């Protein structure tokens, strides 16, 4: 289970509803919550952050804030303290570094491309069909 936090450029309820509907339609999503004050959308479930952002970029500008495991409630029954090894921490750092590299690479992606259309002029093409 992952927890993905995405910042959206949403200013009204209509855009918020669209974003919530798009994200909830993705398979693997367990819960979706939106904080309008900070304009952050929190998604939990077995989904990829890139898929979420690609779907949301069709309606508004989006930016990945954080991607990580879902935090479970801590139990109070932890009287036993075992010795902690530093090797698992190194693995966690490697995983965090990989996620950070993916986020940096994704920010380099520029989705706003202008499309150029070819418009044919009648004067340029004498064989074009014209009704007089």
TrEMBL record:
PROSITE patterns, alphabetized: HMA_2
One Pfam family hit: HMA
Molecular function as annotated in GO: metal ion binding
Source organism, top-level taxon: Eukaryota
Keyword check for Lipoprotein: yes
Domain HMA: 1-68
Compositionally biased region (Basic and acidic residues): 69-96
Keyword line: Lipoprotein, Metal-binding, Methylation, Prenylation
Record carries keyword Acetylation: no
Residue ranges, annotated region (Disordered): 68-96
Protein family: Belongs to the HIPP family.
UniProt xrefs under PANTHER family: COPPER TRANSPORT PROTEIN FAMILY-RELATED, OS04G0667600 PROTEIN
Name the record gives this protein: HMA domain-containing protein
């Amino acid at each position: 289970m992952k927890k993905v936090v995405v910042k959206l450029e949403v200013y009204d309820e209509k855009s918020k509803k669209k974003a919530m509907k798009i994200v909830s339609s993705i398979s693997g999503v367990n819960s979706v919550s939106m904080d309008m004050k900070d304009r952050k959308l929190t998604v939990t479930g077995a989904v990829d952050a890139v898929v979420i952002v690609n779907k949301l970029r069709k309606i508004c500008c989006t930016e990945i804030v954080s991607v990580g495991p879902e935090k479970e409630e801590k139990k109070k029954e932890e009287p036993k303290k075992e010795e902690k090894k530093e090797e698992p921490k190194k693995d966690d750092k490697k995983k965090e570094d990989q996620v950070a590299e993916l986020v940096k690479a994704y920010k380099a992606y520029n989705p706003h491309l202008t499309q150029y259309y070819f418009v044919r002029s009648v004067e340029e093409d004498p064989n074009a069909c014209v009704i007089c």
